[in-house]
Amino acid sequence: MKLCVFDFDSTLMDGETIDFLADALGLKDKVAKITEMAMRGELDFFESLTTRVALLEGLEVEKVDKICRSLPYMPGAKESIKELKKRGYKVAVFSGGFRNATSYAKEILGFDADFSNILHSKNGYLTGLVGGNMMFDFSKGDMLKRLQTLLDIKEEDTVVVGDGANDRSMFKYAKTKIAFCAKEILKKEANVIIDTKDLTQILKEI
Question: Which active-site residues does the annotation give?
Fold first, then answer.
């Protein structure tokens, strides 16, 4: 068995979920600026995540779900996952974003499992609080190690694909480290760099 782990935002999906959500409150520019700094590794991921989610307080959950169901997926996302599964890979998604988006994407794109964060809500509205599997800079690497142990998959049989600073921790535990349309901080850790927005390009490298 082999394993391929994708980041979600700006990797499987063309953009950042939290920026789309912030746009509904007229806060896209403010949130996007923090997102960009976090992805370049200029801000602690936990602090940037909690700061951004706090700005979403009061957004209707119904609206959140509607936005998450209309996100634009990256060209080649579905085709790549289908081909990887044909080649015997288990395909997982590790996202510093939110389950509202990744669980829905699982049904559309066909990956096996998603690990992401949960937006806390009360009475149908976001409270501005967040919790989950992917809150810290080290979270993806920590989860990858646990998944490899659980599935008995070695580092040499592991592929990771990401674009931002919080993907670095999982790059440590995979033989094939693909920086996809990525920030410079991640490219330094990669052994495959793809700068074209077409995920089928990764299939040539695996």
Answer: 7, 9
